[in-house]
Amino acid sequence: MSKSAATFIAKSTIKAPDKEHRRKINFNIGKYNAAVPLGKAQFTDVMKVREHAKNLKWKAIEHLDTHLLQFEKNITARGAQVLWAADAEEAQEYIGKICKKKNCKMVVKSKSMVTEEIHLNQYLESKGIESVETDLGEYIQQLDGEPPYHIVTPAMHKNKEDVAKLFAEKLGTPRDLNPTQLTQVAREKLRKKYVQAEIGVTGANFIVSDIGGIAITENEGNARLSCAFPKTHIVVVGIEKVIPTMEDLAVFWPLLSTYGTGQKVTVYNSIVTGPRQPNETDGPIEMIVILLDNGRTNLLSNPTTREALYCIRCGACLNACPVYKNIGGHSYGTTYSGPIGKVITPHLSGMDEYKHLSNASSLCGNCTEVCPVRINLHELLLENRHEAVEDSVTNVPELLAWRLWKMASLNRSMMNMGNGIIKNWVVNKVFKGWTVHRSDLNFSAKTFNQLWKEQNDGAK
Q1: Distance of CA 273 to CAs 270, 288, 292, Å?
Q2: Where residue 397 falls among pLDDT bands split at 50, 70, 90?
Q3: Considering its fold, how many domains does the chain have in total?
Q4: Whether the predicted pLDDT of 47 surpasses 60
Q5: Could you report how far apart the first and last alpha carbons of the chain are, in Å?
Q6: What would the pLDDT profile of 294-353 be if each residue is shown by its tens digit?
Q7: Whether residues 412 and 269 fall in one domain
Q8: Is the pTM of this model over 0.85?
Q9: pLDDT score of 459
């Protein structure tokens, strides 16, 4: 068992029976479930829109190299710089050199899962640079010393009392502040940071190749401030975020907001096509875009798993997943949790270390059902399992167990061997793993095949 698998089992074992955790998650996801149908009402035929979005992403990923080069050409023509990072370490190195060149003491960041992926905050802190999360949910998590719990809602597992207590401990505020007052406290603290920071870091929801721009979607305006106030703007974005044209945003922006938060469209939608131009008075003097691979080409090289690169990071699959709702986001021990995290992490970070994630699924298909770009997530989880076996990543006892199971399942006489009492004893007493967190498994006295024969005069 890998270290990551052991951690996953340990954390999920603790979190699964935590009723208070489940109450908070069900409450917050319940509000999401109530909002999404309202957002969907804007579409005359939401399924047709989802199919169109999937086709657009298919075209983008199938011609990824062409679109990325077109993006680079167009955005550099407006004065931006594009850097290509093969992995997290190279991206960190680029950012470290930029910070050193600018004599940077403080960075302000908008919410960005890809910067979580490369552990940017920890890297900057190791260099003596203060990194400030400016999204309210991310700010709360940073104060608490925790990573994001959810792709879209970083502090979903906290209620207003948890946040009030945290602010009292970390910021010295009264413990009885309401959500509006807590937001004002964060606003006051963060507004000062924008003008003090030498560098602003953002991610990007989309890379728009035909205009050479990045599209950012948010509800707080902090991303606009992060990329506009500091003199240097760094964008860190995965290469899969590309879309062919600006017109495609008319499809993706409403889909992302509807499936991400239940809104028809988010409050702030920005397109940034470069640093401040000669005829402009606002914006950064310098803009650097770091295009990150970090294992994405592993997904790209496989015609089956390539589909996972269509993801627009709306978080809908997390909200629908019974496993996620039971064990929470932190149990996964990965940047991307939930169904999409289970699909992509083994390819981004190593199948041998993270193959267990693909087995932590009921395969109910609810994730596929809710995905706005119709990624066949449950089928990709099966593909990961298959790949792990084909690559001999599984251990010997597991391989032996599956071979015995296959042998028995293909042989009816072996399946009929032993009555229900014997089978109960084997599962519940000999192989005790089943009953560690479950009640005893009780087999019927006779198999379906045996009952069929009895009722049909021995017919097969």
Answers
A1: 10, 11, 18
A2: confident
A3: 2
A4: yes
A5: 42
A6: 999 999 999 999 999 999 999 999 999 999 999 999 999 999 999 999 999 999 999 999
A7: no
A8: yes
A9: 61
Let me know whether 425 and 278 are in one domain.
no
**Does residue 178 fall inside a structural domain?**
yes
Are 285 and 426 part of one and the same domain? no
Examine the fold and report which residue of 294, 326, 345 is the final residue of a domain before the chain moves on. 294
Residues 65-100 pLDDT 10s = 999 999 999 999 999 999 999 999 999 999 999 999
Tens of pLDDT, residue by residue over 403-433, are: 887 887 788 777 777 677 787 887 777 776 7
Selected residue with higher pLDDT from 428 and 41: 41
181: in domain: yes
120 and 245, same domain (yes or no): yes
Residue 13 lies in a domain: no
What is the share, in percent, of the chain residues with pLDDT greater than 90?
82
Last residue of a domain, one of 277, 294, 311: 294
Q: Which domain holds residue 424?
A: 403-455
Q: Are residues 287 and 430 in the same domain?
A: no
Where residue 154 sits, what CATH number does that domain have? 3.40.50.10420
Pairing mode, strands 213-218 and 268-272: antiparallel
Of the candidates 324, 320, 322, 300, which has an alpha carbon nearest to the alpha carbon of residue 310? Answer: 300
Reading the block at residue 325, the tokens are 């709702």
**Domain contains 129:** yes
